[in-house]
Specification:
Distance between the termini: 24 Å
Number of helices: 8
Strand order of the largest sheet: 6-13-8-9-10
Strand content: 15-25%
Largest sheet: 5 strands, antiparallel
Number of strands: 14
Helix content: 40-55%
Shape: rod-shaped
Low-confidence stretches: none
Order of helices and strands: HHHEEEEHEEEEEEEEEEHHHH
């Protein structure tokens, strides 16, 4: 049997008012913050999902920072390679100018001085810093200058690793190229083929040109052409096997195993010429070879031929280096394009996350205001009921 007392009625009324006041306060807090999910206990499942989305959003922000950092370095690489290409273009012009047979040794010495200055500028570009205390072309060993010059010889102190940076979920781009790839492994020759005159040649024979005539017939060997008296020559392959012979005619191509080389001048007995696949050389040595050719006096026909062969080799190799830097710029441009695509992808992901989070957390003001009004009316009614109840007493029923 339930006993009804004045205290019990008071307690029930107070509990009802406190409950309605709590509901009204919560709704008021929602209206103030604009959020319907104030604490995890409001919706444990929704709160857990929101935390997961927050982490995804933070990860997108991290990807954005990665993209900004690598984009800065790739843009700096583009600028550095553009400058390097301009320097090589100027060196190429000077090398062609130096090939003019009417120039004096003094003229070539003046050209050599400018080439040396340009080489120093290229060395500075190779040691470009990215503005954050790291060097651009050092690979992962980028805490110090990657290139060192000692007694005129340039060496590389970085590594050959190219970083891969995540800039969007499962989307990576490559950082700046290591200097070993850019400046030390530069193809020589032209079109994958190169020709060389032996340094010990004593005749006036010069390389006029070379070409690949039949890629199916050429097996990638380097062919060695040795001259005898009266222009007779014998050609050998990499294994030393004799593969061709003939008599030299100035200006006529010597065709061997799918490749051809054209010589001018008069090769002497014992002179040697080679034709084969392109090699790689560091760009600084290539420029040093050009400087050496420019500063070496040439008075005899043999010396003049050697100088011309060296100058023509430098022209070919520097032209190949220009193409090498252009290819590197194209590769960097592809990475920059990928950064733009990743930015669009991150933006789409971020919009989806924001939309989902808004649905979980953001308040529907129309619904909340209506609820607030109803809860206020309910609280007012509870308060009025309490006031009315206070005016009554069980003792009144006993009278």
């Amino acid at each position: 049997m339930t006993r009804i007392s004045t205290g019990m009625l008071y307690q029930q009324s107070l509990s009802a008012m406190q409950s309605k006041q709590a509901s009204l306060a919560r709704t008021q807090n929602e209206l103030t913050t604009g959020k319907k999910l104030l604490t995890a206990k409001d919706d444990p499942v929704g709160a857990g999902a929101a935390v997961t989305l927050d982490r995804s959003k933070a990860e997108l922000e991290r990807f954005g920072k990665n993209a900004d950092a690598v984009g800065h370095r790739l843009n700096m690489q583009e600028s550095a390679l553009t400058q390097a290409g301009d320097l090589l273009g100027r060196i190429q012009v000077l090398a062609v100018q130096a090939g003019n047979g009417t120039l004096s040794d003094g003229d070539r010495q003046a050209i050599a001085s400018e080439v040396q200055s340009l080489r120093d500028g290229l060395f500075d570009i190779a040691n470009t810093a990215d503005g954050t205390g790291r060097y651009l072309f050092g690979g992962t060993q980028d805490g110090g200058a990657p290139f060192i010059r000692h007694q005129g010889v340039v060496s590389y102190g970085g590594d050959q690793t190219q970083r891969r940076v995540e800039i969007a979920p499962e989307m990576f781009v490559s950082d700046a190229l290591p200097g070993s790839e850019l400046f030390l492994r530069v193809p020589t020759g032209s079109g994958g083929l190169d020709a060389r005159a032996a340094a010990a040649n004593s005749g006036s024979g010069k390389i006029g040109g070379f070409s690949l005539n039949d890629s199916n017939a050429w097996n990638g060997d380097t062919y060695r052409i040795e001259f005898d008296a009266d222009g007779a020559y014998v050609a050998f392959d990499d294994d030393g096997a004799r593969i061709a012979d003939g008599v030299y005619v100035a200006g006529d191509a010597i065709s061997i195993g799918g490749v051809a080389i054209t010589l001018t001048g008069e090769p002497a007995a014992g002179d040697v010429f080679e034709i084969g696949p392109s090699r790689t050389a560091d760009i600084f040595s290539t420029i040093d070879d050009l400087v050496h050719a420019l500063t070496t006096p040439a008075t005899t026909d043999a010396q003049k031929a050697a100088q011309q062969n060296a100058l023509q080799a430098s022209i070919r190799n520097i032209s190949s280096a220009e193409g090498h830097f252009i290819d590197a710029r194209a590769a960097g441009g592809a990475q920059l394009s990928a950064l733009d695509s990743a930015a669009d992808l991150r933006g789409a992901f971020d919009l989806n996350i924001q939309t989902t989070l808004s649905g979980m957390r953001d308040l529907d003001y129309v619904e909340a205001i209506s609820r607030f009004s109803l809860e206020k009316v309910a609280l007012d009614a509870a308060q009025l009921s309490f006031v009315q109840m206070q005016r009554n007493s069980l003792f009144d029923l006993l009278r």
